[in-house]
Design a protein that fits this description.
- The complex is a heterodimer of chains A (238) and B (453).
- Chain A is α/β, with parallel strands linked by helices.
- Chain A has helices spanning 61-68, 91-100, 117-127, 132-145, 161-173, 191-206, and strands at 19-28, 35-45, 50-54, 76-81, 84-85, 102-105, 179-183, 210-214, 226-231, 234-237.
- Chain A has a domain at 13-101 and 216-238: P-loop containing nucleotide triphosphate hydrolases (Rossmann fold).
- The longest helix of chain A is centred in the last third of the chain and has 16 residues, at 191-206.
- Chain B starts with a helix and ends in a 10-residue tail after the last helix.
- Chain B has a 6-stranded mixed beta barrel.
- The radius of gyration of chain B is 31 Å and the shape is elongated.
- Mean pLDDT of chain B is 72; it is low at 1-9, 69-79, 201-216, 233-244 and 271-279.
- By secondary structure, chain B is of the alpha+beta class.
- Chain B contains 16 helices and 11 strands.
- Helices cover 55% and strands 15% of the residues of chain B.
- The chains are: A alpha/beta (238), B alpha+beta (453).
Chain lengths: 238, 453
């Protein structure tokens, strides 16, 4: 597998990519209705990088991050996370990867409404096997580090958009993932909160996480260390 | 903080939070499942009460029960022949023998007659204590169940008329007991003398002969055979012979007057209905030390077809089969129907909950909750709902059963461990089956849907 050269970055702690794909093809439908949603020869994201994936609607951004997040099995091609090939036929392995290797920040944050902020983070820790006081302590630390510890017992409906965003990031980081995937994370945020999110994502990269950011929000561009533009499922520019 | 401590001990209770998302729906489901479980408890308690009507057998301490007739030769209207009783008393195996029960009717002053059973044994023989007054000691004294007394509006000191055929004994209620009332028959405890007096002097109290037969000729043949067998088994069967002769003459009259075979058959059916075949009469025997039921069988002619000797266990099963086991299929159907309703209610509640929370399940799948995790989550909701319903249902069931017992004292009920075990098992079945459809829905969810919201 060959990877394109990474751009100049402030620091690249290790040479092994956090996630890499090769010969990646994904199609929806069959026969005449077949749509090539994704066709990428090679792509790698290294720890310390913030890869910004941009492109118009329908360009394949969501499909790409779904595949990178192991939520979607590609029609063809392979994907490696932390140097290990992902077996999409092994559901347990996929669950394990999503629990420990990948953190998601969804478009509308997708916090679990019946749970408090702390519980939302703890739920992710529980999934990975961390329970009890250890999970609670870790969740509290994360919320504290993101400045929302004072809202620990609030439920999502009582949190502002910015607070929800930070709780969602705390949940994504709960299990110290190798890769953080964010899908249009500023769709519901004002400029201040969008910029704040950019800083948080950049700081994650600074701590050695690889960040893949799918967005068409230009306010986040300054925080990216690398950008790719998708068009009709292909990398049109890098 | 207690809440924090509870949280810190394990996982976040996501299932509980999800199922409580709509509290009104949760409450409705709990109410419905509680009612289902309570219904099961009531059904089983009443059924246990009916079956418990034979529990006195243990307290009675009689190992052998002699069943005369069994529906084939003698009718129940016939009291147990004195000869059988005498033979049992005189036999070397019997410590004591007495007619245990005499079917009769009873009524308070001015009240209506109702079916009763005169019991010629002291209540203490059945493990029962007299709750008010005392035990009967003299002729024409009686003791009845306090619930029956309440329903008849009488008490200690009241008059109670016992009637068997044309023979009537006016007794005085000298005490009450508890726990003997049944739907079928009420017990009246009397002395052996009163029991005998109730039987004697009744012109119809002699044993009658009856037989299953397809025609009058067959009947006559059957009656002759029966009489021969009785003479063989019991030496003093003059009574039977006499009765047989009377019956035969009745049959001959029928034959003479019947204008057709159809008339004759119809008259025979009426005659047989009057004789009430198929109802046995019992004699309880306490064995002397060293004797066994098989000794009784040998001595009383266990090989005969008209007198059967049963062990206490066989007797219990015989009674239960005749009266109570017959309703077991009905009880089973009722319990199964209740469980089916519970499964439906629980399934609908959880399915609705899962449908409304698909986005949350997708998020959970995306952050690494596997199929096992989701399974636990749905089952946790089911357990939470059914657990609360079970506790409330058991309590409500007990309360309703007790209330029924209070309002309708003649309906027997009994709380036994198996009732709770079956109700709990039914709740578990409801929980598991009710979870299947929502679980399937949750497991079929594609986690990528979280990206497409």
């Amino acid at each position: 597998m060959t990877y394109p050269s990474p751009p100049q970055m402030p620091a690249r702690p290790v040479a092994m990519p956090a996630v890499a794909v090769s010969g990646l093809v994904h199609t929806y439908g069959r026969g005449h209705a077949e749509v090539h949603a994704l066709d990428i020869d090679a792509l790698a994201v290294f720890p310390g990088e913030v890869l910004l994936v941009e492109g118009p609607s329908g360009s394949g951004k969501t499909t790409l991050i779904s595949v990178l997040g192991t939520l979607l099995r590609p029609t063809r091609g392979g994907i490696e996370i932390g140097g290990r090939a992902v077996d999409f036929g092994d559901q347990r392995a996929l669950d394990r990867i999503r629990r420990s290797e990948i953190g998601f920040v969804f478009q509308s944050f997708s916090l679990l409404a019946p749970l408090t902020a702390t519980e939302n983070v703890t739920a992710a820790l529980n999934a990975a096997g961390t329970r009890g006081r250890a999970a609670h302590r870790r969740a509290t630390e994360l919320l504290d580090s993101l400045g929302v510890a004072h809202r620990a017992h609030a439920r999502p409906r009582d949190l502002s958009g910015g607070e929800q965003q930070r709780v969602a990031i705390a949940r994504a980081l709960a299990n110290e993932p190798r890769l953080v995937i964010a899908d249009e994370p500023t769709a519901n945020l004002d400029t201040d909160h969008s910029l704040e999110l950019g800083h948080v994502l950049a700081s994650l990269a600074g701590r050695g996480h690889a960040v893949v950011l799918a967005t068409h929000d230009p306010r986040l561009e300054p925080f990216a260390t690398r950008r790719i533009r998708l068009l009709d499922g292909r990398i049109a520019a890098e | 903080m207690p809440i924090e401590l509870r949280r810190s001990r394990g996982r976040v209770p996501i299932g509980r939070r999800l199922v409580l998302r709509s509290r009104s729906r949760f409450a409705m489901a709990v109410v419905a499942c509680t009612a289902v479980i309570a219904l099961i408890v009531v059904e089983l308690s009443v059924h246990a009460g009916l079956l418990g009507a034979t529990s006195w057998l243990d307290a009675m301490g009689s190992e052998a029960w002699v069943m005369v007739a069994g529906g084939k030769v003698l009718s129940q209207n016939a009291p147990l022949p004195d000869a059988v009783v005498a033979q049992a008393r005189e036999a070397g195996f019997a410590a004591s023998a007495a007619v245990a029960f005499t079917p009769c009717e009873m009524a308070s002053a001015g009240g209506e007659l109702q079916t009763a059973m005169a019991v010629s044994w002291p209540a203490s023989a059945f493990g029962l204590d007299v709750t008010a007054g005392r035990s009967p000691q003299d002729l024409d004294e009686s003791v009845i169940d306090e619930a029956v007394a309440r329903s008849m509006g009488i008490g200690v000191g009241s008059g109670l008329r016992l009637k068997r055929g044309s023979h009537v004994r006016d007794t005085v209620v000298v005490g009450t007991v508890a726990g003997t009332s049944t739907l079928i028959q009420q017990w009246v405890f009397v002395t052996a003398e009163t029991g005998s007096a109730l039987l004697s002097g009744d012109p119809d109290s002699s044993a009658r002969l009856d037989a299953s037969a397809a025609s009058l000729n067959d009947l006559e043949t059957a009656l002759r055979d029966a009489a021969a067998k009785l003479r063989e088994i019991l030496p003093n069967v003059g009574l039977f012979t006499e009765q047989f002769e009377r019956l035969r003459s009745g049959i001959e009259q029928l034959e003479a007057t019947a204008s057709s075979a159809a008339d004759g058959s119809a008259a025979l059916i009426r005659l047989r209905e009057q004789l009430q075949p198929d109802k046995p009469q019992y004699l309880a025997i306490r064995l002397r030390e060293g004797q066994s039921v098989s000794d009784v069988r040998r001595a009383l002619g266990g090989s005969g077809t008209d007198v059967s000797v049963l062990t206490a266990a066989e007797f219990r099963e015989d009674l239960n089969t005749k009266y109570f086991r017959a309703i077991e299929p009905l009880v089973t159907i009722l319990v199964a129907a209740a469980v089916a309703v519970g499964v439906l209610l629980l399934g609908l509640t959880l399915s609705t909950q899962v449908s409304e929370s698909l986005a949350d399940y997708a998020v959970l799948r995306a952050i690494g909750y596997g199929r096992g995790g989701l399974r636990r989550l749905v089952l946790a909701q089911s357990c939470y709902l059914i657990g609360i319903s079970l506790v409330l249902g058991l309590g409500l069931g007990i309360a309703v059963t007790a209330l029924i017992g209070e309002l309708a004292p003649l309906i027997p009920w009994r709380l036994v461990p198996s009732t709770f075990a079956i109700a709990t098992a039914a709740a578990v079945v409801m929980g598991l089956l009710g979870s299947l459809a929502p679980l399937r829905r949750a497991l079929r969810l594609d986690p990528v849907s979280v990206m497409r919201r």
